[in-house]
Write a structure and sequence with these properties.
7% of the residues lie in helices and 52% in strands. It is mainly β. Strand 11 (150-158) and strand 12 form a beta hairpin. It starts with a helix and ends with a strand.
Length: 309
């Protein structure tokens, strides 16, 4: 039998580490990470809320699996509070099977509809119900450059018009991320339609190492662009991540012109050791975000952190 004081000691050490991180970044410490997957096929590469959270958070999560028959999507249940639990239940995917899903986003103003993005730039328009999700249409992103690798996609609504923001993740010092923004809609057949595309470069100032500059994107109601960035030394880590304020996106009242501004010196809102964050979603009317990780062989974890205020 293990001594009873060990869990208390470990909890105290973890609390001190989180407090030190918060003091360094100016962000409040996040809640404890909760494991929702235990291998390379059960990480979280994207997350979208499925309702308005009260005490519990419900969300769709996507996985970057590539082999036929592997789980592509699941339902996250996350109980807030120190004694809460978290789990992901696989759900059915009906339609063309994607390879390497990296992001999922709720469609503003259309309950039950979502957009998922695969790493090579394929956009999946989805409808969710109690039986799972159904693919309504598949279409490519605009402005796909050779060698691009996409891990992020966000939708926001301004003046009643939708705007999409996404990024090629970039890699290390030699390749910054390219962030894109465009008016967004669906045609009569459910195919994604993009307007004129704006783009800019983003370099993460944290974490250190061979960083993926943009591993996910969230856009607040006011148009602030938040990004997660992550470093990955291999399938067993070590990992490190940060969440930063990257810039802003706005759309004119006519909904035809988007303005994208990316900061040359981004503000780091929080740093997270030993985790590879690939999912970032702000809770409505809250400074809190839900963060999800794809820690490769170590599985997937979720937590909440005050990075959206």
């Amino acid at each position: 039998m293990q001594p009873h004081h060990k869990p208390l000691l470990l909890a105290a050490v973890a609390t001190l580490a989180l407090t030190a991180t918060a003091a360094h970044t100016g962000a409040a410490p996040e809640a404890a990470w909760r494991q929702v997957g235990d291998d390379a096929k059960t990480g979280i590469s994207g997350l979208a809320l499925t309702g308005s959270p009260t005490e519990d958070i419900e969300a769709l999560v996507v996985r970057d699996n590539k082999k036929p028959g592997d789980s592509r999507i699941g339902q996250l249940s996350y109980e807030q509070g120190e004694s809460g639990s978290a789990s992901v239940a696989p759900i059915a995917w009906e339609g063309p099977e994607p390879v390497d899903l990296e992001a999922v986003e709720a469609v503003p103003g259309t309950p039950g509809e979502y957009v998922a993005l695969a790493s090579r730039g394929l956009v999946y328009h989805l409808r969710a119900d109690d039986s799972g999700v159904k693919v309504l249409d598949v279409s490519p992103l605009p402005a796909i450059n050779e060698g691009a690798d996409f891990e992020s996609f966000a939708l926001t609504s301004q003046h009643g018009e939708m705007v999409a923001v996404w990024a090629d993740r970039g890699a290390g010092a030699s390749r910054p991320a390219t962030v894109f923004a465009a008016p967004f809609s669906f045609d009569a057949y459910g195919k994604a339609s993009f307007g004129a595309v704006e783009q800019d470069r983003f370099r993460a100032s944290a974490p250190e190492g061979e960083v993926r500059h943009v591993s996910d994107i969230a856009v607040t109601d006011s148009g602030r662009i938040l990004v997660s960035s992550a470093s990955d030394a291999g399938d067993n880590g070590p990992f490190a991540s940060a969440v930063s304020e990257a810039g802003t996106v706005t759309v004119d009242a006519a909904g035809s012109r988007v303005r994208l501004r990316i900061d040359s010196s981004p503000t780091v809102l929080g740093t997270f050791g030993d985790r590879k964050i690939e999912a970032l979603e702000c809770l409505p009317d809250s400074p809190e975000a839900v963060l999800g990780t794809d820690d490769e062989n170590l599985g997937g974890f979720v937590t909440t952190a005050s990075v959206c205020g």
